[in-house]
Design brief:
D-Maltodextrin-Binding Protein, domain 2; alpha/beta; 2 domains; 7-stranded mixed β-sheet
């Protein structure tokens, strides 16, 4: 929780061990930029763990799936920097060869968490809540390969490695979303607990932006930190991961990014997948910034 010091603030900051997040926050973790009097207490955990901890408001600032943010807009607001949005970077549905896509609705599907954007997109694609089983994202491909599940929704660096498990692409949910909306796919964002002052929020957005710029200018310096936490250690995969998920939307959500998030929330609320805003009888969709 937020604590004040004589010369600044102590804030808890949580993000995932995925290469895009460790790239973004490397400079903050090692105090390589001016943090403007804020001392960040850093914790790393997979994104679904962070989604679930956010229910209790455990961290002041946290990486969250946009699906989770849609559930928690009474508790957290979205920052304009640090987000993962883009084109050609959405979750993939994979299965073993010979899978009949027409029977997908009837199959056991592994997902990386019930509050992940991957699961939300699956529900939107199928127009129903399918038979899903939440497991750790790094276990999805081995579990499908072993026949424990019929199909799996993979995220992160899985899009670069699923063929090693003998799996085939069934549906690219990101491409589906782009075809349906003409918008980039919102995957995850940095959320800040409500009650923190607007001045501090702007300061944190600025610090995160500077941290990203530092990492871009000093890519080799971040390598050891990124590799220390990465699930997939191949340098080429790590580089592909960062190049795909860290982009202009990471520096600033912008109007197009905000429209993408609002659209995701609006459609999910219309279909009963996300709850209506508690303070409105109508489907209030404006991103709370």
């Amino acid at each position: 929780m937020l604590k004040t010091r004589k010369n600044g603030l102590d804030l808890s900051l949580a993000f995932s061990p995925c290469p895009n997040d460790t790239f973004i926050f490397f400079a903050i973790a090692y105090n390589l930029i001016d943090c403007e009097g804020i001392e960040f207490k850093i914790r790393l955990a997979d994104v679904e763990t962070l989604n679930q901890k956010a229910k209790a408001g455990v961290f002041d600032i946290s990486k969250l799936s946009f699906a989770a943010i849609g559930h928690l807009q009474d508790r957290y607001s979205l920052l304009r920097s640090g987000a993962a949005l883009g084109r050609g970077c959405g979750p993939l549905i994979v299965a073993k060869p010979g899978f009949n896509i027409n029977k997908l609705k009837l199959k056991k599907i592994a997902v990386p968490g019930l509050w992940t954007t991957a699961n939300l997109l699956l529900c939107l694609y199928l127009s129903k809540k399918p038979d899903v089983y939440p497991i750790s994202f790094e276990q999805i491909m081995p579990s499908v390969e072993q026949g424990i599940f019929d199909a799996g929704v993979i995220i992160h660096e899985g899009r670069f490695t699923y063929k090693k498990y003998g799996l085939e692409l069934i549906v690219d949910l990101g491409s589906w979303w782009e075809a349906e909306t003409s918008l980039p796919i919102p995957l995850g964002g940095i959320a800040i607990r409500k009650g923190i002052s607007a001045e501090t929020v702007k300061k944190i957005e600025r610090i995160i932006r500077e941290s990203v710029l530092y990492a871009y200018k000093n890519r080799n310096k971040a390598d050891d930190y990124i590799k220390k936490h990465a699930q997939e250690l191949a340098p080429s995969v790590i580089r592909q991961h960062i190049d795909l998920y860290v982009n202009e939307f990471t520096l600033n959500l912008g109007d197009e990014g905000e429209e993408a998030v609002e659209t995701l929330f609006k459609i999910a609320r219309e279909r009963g997948i996300l709850p209506l805003r508690a303070n409105s009888k109508r489907q209030k969709t404006k991103v709370d910034l």
